[in-house]
Amino acid sequence: MSAEEGPHLPGEGQATPAGHMSPEPHNRRRKRFRVGLLVEPSPFSHVSGYANRFTEMLRYLREAGDEVAICTPDLSPSAPRTKFGFNVTNLRGFRLPMYRMVVCSFDWRLRTVEVMERFRPDVLHVSTPGFLCIPGMISAWLLNVPLVFSYHTHIPVYARRYFRPFGKISETITWWYLRLIHSQADLTLVTSPQIQEELREKGIARVSIWRKGIDTERYHPKFQDEDMRFRLTGGNPDQPLLVYVGRVAAEKRIEDLKDVLQSIPGARLAIVGGGPQEAALRAHFEGTPTVFTGMLSGEELSQAYASADVFCMPSDSETLGFVVLEAMASGTPVVAVRAGGIPSLIKHGATGLLVEPNAPRRFGAKVRKLLRDKPLRERIAKAARADAETWDWRSSTKDLREVQYAAAMQHHEDKIRHRVPWFRRILPSMSFSFRGFLGEFSLWWNDAIAGPAQPPREHGNGGQGLSKGPS
């Protein structure tokens, strides 16, 4: 195996069920990690499956006794200063012009570099695609620590769709940018075998699958609720109910469900979620039995999943599709497009039904098949629930810590040893002066941008997030 290929990791080509861990590379088991985490947009104010993934990851890193320093752009008044006892640095940011719900940051002040220099992480984990990956790369290079990217939004599909008529050119530029950025990572994490394969085909090396997890108590058939069904059907609970849950945005192709709805006599559609396309979709579905609920959370969201007859996922751009997994855990059969990461969740004909992209009529035919065949619907719902129960966040995070972070650290050491051995030899003697230079540079940059910096305030955990913990 070449150095470029990197170590073989769990999920390379197939999913790894909970409780079945692969051997740890190079016996690099650690009791504690110090993880620098740069996430964009904020997982604490941006509602998505990706946000849920990071929240659960932090929960179980805390359970494992790790220390985490978090940097994320957040403009909300309620932006947290701590999460699970970990310090959160809220960066100044801006809203994307074409997607106002998403807040990003260039971090011109290099606050991430300053925070990570004080924290001294063992590994730096940065979400992509976005803008924070640039200061993330700078931090990893200056601090000489392993860099892990996790890829959550399949941006080439967005570029093709949002920048018409220059979609093809935009997609080509996007892939060039992704190759450039991810070539700097010691490991890239993705959420499905399909996305892993596509990134590899496009020339991105060292790609591993960050396993999925689901809270099967929060999403459960027991939350089926008559009042919620009455609400979602617009007061017609005896009629077939189709449900979509997720962002209301162009890339989700929700408009395709109009043809599906109109092909099923008496059917009702509930669209659960919010987003930039909501006004346009309300106009598009005008005159149809469609209910827009806006954002739901907590028990209401659990009830919405469990009270539907069929869950519909028309999107062809999902890197994974957490809402599909949540519907499966809720015992609601799913019809989804065979694209992106969805096929890694659904076994066609067993735990759900898949349809080829750009085929609304075939999608409608699959939905009708489920509605007409109650035994099939119940069999798929039961199998989907059983499949969802095999995944949990604790084992996913254990895999992340003990296998994937360890593999990134090993690759980082190999890279230094084989490519720049002289730098590795003199690094200890440079350590003190280097830290001084970095501190002075950060202070100068902050003064130049925003005036003299105020003494940093530490929040939560008694400032322990900045102390050197056991390794």
UniProtKB/TrEMBL annotation:
Keywords: Glycosyltransferase, Transferase. Residues 236-386 form the Glycosyl transferase family domain. Residues 48-218 form the Glycosyltransferase subfamily 4-like N-terminal domain. One of its GO terms (molecular function) is glycosyltransferase activity. Residues 1-26 are annotated as: Disordered. It comes from the Eukaryota. Pfam families: Glyco_transf_4 (PF13439), Glycos_transf_1 (PF00534). SUPFAM superfamilies: UDP-Glycosyltransferase/glycogen phosphorylase (SSF53756). InterPro entries: Glyco_trans_1, Glyco_trans_4-like_N, Glycosyltransferase_grp1. This is Glycosyltransferase subfamily 4-like N-terminal domain-containing protein. It comes from Rhizochromulina marina.
